[in-house]
Write a structure and sequence with these properties.
The chain is an all-alpha fold and 102 residues long. It has helices at residues 11-20, 25-37, 44-53, 58-68, 72-95.
Length: 102
Amino acid sequence: MVKQNSYTVLRNDLRRLLTSMHVSDKSIEALFSMMEKTHRHINAIAFASQLERMGLSRNQIANVLRRIGIDDVTIASVFEMMDTEKISAEIGRIYNVSIKFG
């Protein structure tokens, strides 16, 4: 069995789904604008991270991803990668501190 690497969702369907989760029109438009800049394609990790920044819970994000057609194993991997990126970002902040002695 070949694993699917690309998923399609109609703009109106995604808008309806996000609106039902009480995402503001402004946030939805920002997401669509970001996707337009990348020729209507977005990495699943970046997409889920953007949904999280919009205030959706992990459970809600998983629901959105399932509605698009992504399976639970892949969704778990997306969340794992999101967590890894957050940890890497935090470590980067710690190590990028500079101290100036006068």
